[in-house]
Amino acid sequence: MPYPHAHVYVLVVMGVIVAGFWPSYFAVWGSVPWQFHAHGVAASIWVAMVAAQSWTVHRARLALHRAVGKSSLFLFPFLIAGLAAIIDVTGKGYVAADGPVRTMFGASFLIGLALAIAAYVTVYYRALKYRRKVWVHSGYLLATPLILFESPFSRLLGTYLPALSVGGPEDFHLVMVSILWAMAAELAVIAAIWLRYRDRAKPFLVAACFIVAQMLTMGLMADSALLQSLLVVIGRLPSAVVVLSGFAVGALTSWAGWNAGKRPTAPVAPVAQPT
Question: Which residue has the higher pLDDT, 70 or 268?
Answer without folding.
Answer: 70
